[in-house]
Amino acid sequence: MEKEILDQKDAVDWVYKGEGAANLVLAYTGSSPPFIGKVLRIQKSPRNGKNGVNGNGALSKHERLLWRENEELTASPSREIVEQLYVKHVMSPLLGTKHVDSGMRVLVTKEFLESVEKNVTCHRPAWRVDSSQVDMNRNSALIISDHSIFPNGPLKGGPCITVEIKPKCGFLPISRFIAEENAVKRTITRFRMHQALKLHNQEISEYSEYNPLDLFSGSRDGICKAIEALYATPQNNFRLFLNGSLVFGGLGGSSDSNTLLVAEAFENALKNVIQADNGLCTTGFLQLVAETVYISGVLDQLLEVQKLDSYDIEGAIHAYYDIISQPCMVCRELSKDKLSHHYTSLHSIPLDESLKIVKDYLIAATAKDCSLMISFRPKEDGDLLSSYNTVYLGSTNQAFEYKVFFIDLDLKPLKKMEYYYELDKKIVNCYSQTMRTEHQADKVLNGHLGSVFI
């Protein structure tokens, strides 16, 4: 497909489907056979020019050292090729080839990218427009299958409905490098703590009750509880597509809690898929999603990859500074009484060990930040030749074919290690301060109530 070149005239056939932090996702509406049933991932660049990749640069010197075991990756001439090969050679073997689509590159002209930028701006969330734009320095984009539909299209076998879930980190860290003042990380999920920071920054309007530990619990009840919480407060962690079109959740932005109107629209969207009485389609669908997560077991493998982060950022950051041959800024900040042997010992290990610590941390970061796409379509009677797995919804006596794919498996730049460390500090500090403030408020309230009854 690299021989295909998308030019300005082709831009009209690609429409906005969504976006994440690093990429725009466009759906194809034209008639060219190679692109039917595909989506196009186009890399973005920050409007302020910060924290972006450097033009068409591939891996940095230290990144080539980090990934030296994969010669194809380190020899790649551009970041786009690196990204694709990372998914193909690193993430796919770890998560399972049947659940990962590494895609193919297609060449694009600058005029195509300029037209796309102009066409999609009005469809993007305002805050996304303010922060990023199409990266005009790219000469290729990634074509992957549209995992919100089945390859045969939405018409064969009835309607197709797809849920997109951001599972987030599914375990509590136990690293000995977590500082005593940050011990809360061992008992409260990263997701819950990050909610406090997002609420403080007015990125969300209320806490989500979602707990990733429930989703990764391996129990039907826990998974069902997690799915219900994601539906109740989707934010940007739960979206629904009907025949490839978004019908629930934010367009690359954030949708907080459900309103009655939104709940009714969700119920109506499911009526042609879930054969339940009025008002019960949503319940049936959430049960279907939970059952599929449970029987597929895909999150077990994802959790194993996430757990490659065994040092936590508080340990991995020290290995990072040794890799880039710079004085450790973290050790410099720590007072002598806090600069324990744990931290200094990390600066005396062999380089190969430092490389493994950081590489495993970045792979785990990809796994913590990816999304899960689960597509369903009602199974036709007598269809015995299907290549897809089957899940049964007992409450409606229906059988569904389903497929599961991981998406957004982006390579994390080595230089983001410092960002991850600073973000971790912000999250823990904000959560701790929030808890102290709430505790003080409770003491004052209880004092007032006590005086009332004296």
Characterization of this structure:
By secondary structure, this protein is of the alpha+beta class. The chain contains 16 helices and 13 strands. The strands form 2 sheets. Strands 1, 2, 3, 4, 5, 6 and 7 form a 7-stranded mixed β-sheet that branches. Strand 12 and strand 13 form a beta hairpin. Helix 11 packs antiparallel against helix 15. The radius of gyration is 23 Å and the shape is globular. About 1% of the residues have low confidence.
What gross morphology would you assign?
A: globular
Q: What is the terminal separation in angstroms?
A: 80 Å
Oligomer: single chain
Mean pLDDT, nearest integer? Answer: 90
Helix amount: 40-55%
Number of strands: 13
User: Which value, in Å, is the CA radius of gyration?
Assistant: 23 Å
Q: What low-confidence regions span 5 or more consecutive residues with pLDDT below 50?
A: 51-56
Count of alpha/pi helices = 16
Q: How is the main sheet built?
A: 7 strands, mixed
The percentage of residues in β strands lies in 15-25%
Order of helices and strands: EEEEHHHEHHEEEHHHEEHHHHHHHEEEH
Structural class: alpha+beta
Task: Throw out a few tags for this protein.
alpha+beta; 13 strands; 16% strand; 454 residues; 41% helix
List strands and helices in order, with pairings.
Layout: E1 5-6, E2 14-19, E3 23-28, E4 38-46, H1 61-66, H2 71-74, H3 79-95, E5 104-108, H4 110-120, H5 126-131, E6 132-134, E7 140-145, E8 161-165, H6 190-200, H7 212-215, H8 220-232, E9 238-242, E10 245-248, H9 260-270, H10 281-296, H11 298-306, H12 312-323, H13 329-333, H14 341-346, H15 351-369, E11 371-378, E12 389-393, E13 398-407, H16 416-452
Parallel strand pairs: 1-5
Antiparallel strand pairs: 2-3, 3-4, 4-6, 4-7, 5-7, 8-9, 8-11, 9-10, 11-13, 12-13
